[in-house]
Amino acid sequence: MSHESEHSTALPGDHEDPSGGPTWVVGIAGAILTVVTALAVTGLYYAAERAELHGKVTSVRSQEAEIRREADALAMMNEPHWEQWTDADGVLAGERTLVVPMSTARELVKKKWGGSGN
Predict the structure, then answer these.
(1) Closest CA to 100 of 90, 92, 111, 88
(2) Contact 80, 102 (CB under 8 A)
(3) Does residue 6 lie in a domain region?
(4) Residue 98: which of 84, 117, 112 has the closest Cα?
(5) What number is the average pLDDT over the span 70-84?
(6) Model-wide pTM > 0.85
(7) How far apart (Å, rounded) are the C-alpha atoms in residues 16 and 28?
(8) Is residue 44 one of the residues assigned to a domain?
(9) Which terminus of the chain, N or C, has less C-beta within 10 A?
């Protein structure tokens, strides 16, 4: 039994298998493109991971610093009050000082030194 039909006409250069040269070129080019793509994706991944790690390391906030920041923020929101400090023996260590919140202090400075001619 023959695979060729009785009525088929073969064209010049027509054969079942493709030629070897172009097949090798396409195969090698595809392999190179695959390797380059894999290396590029790997490089992007590790660059992003390194940038994320660098951000985590440089932006570490200690618990003590965070507590201090919160205390400073709360201190700026207090009502104005007088403070007087004493030493361990109970002797006054200095004069009374007025402690005012930042917003009130800002307004006082604007009233005192904020001139319209400046």
Answers:
(1) 111
(2) no
(3) no
(4) 84
(5) 79
(6) no
(7) 22
(8) yes
(9) N
Q: What pLDDT does 60 receive?
A: 64
Return the residue matching tokens 């493709």. 18
Q: Yes or no: say if 93 and 87 are a contact pair by the CB < 8 Å rule.
A: yes
- One-letter amino acid at 85 equals W
How many Å apart are CA 9 and CA 112, to the nearest integer? Answer: 106
> What's the one-letter identity of residue 116?
S
Number of domains, the chain:
1
Quick: pLDDT tens for 34-64.
Answer: 999 999 999 999 999 998 888 777 666 677 7
Print the domain residue range for 45.
20-60
Measuring CA to CA, which residue among 70, 73, 59 is closest to residue 103? 73
Amino acid at 69: R
Phi, psi angles (nearest 5°) of residue 78: -65, 160
Predicted confidence (pLDDT) at residue 1 exceeds the cutoff of 50: no
Examine the pLDDT at 8 and tell me if it is beyond 70. Answer: no
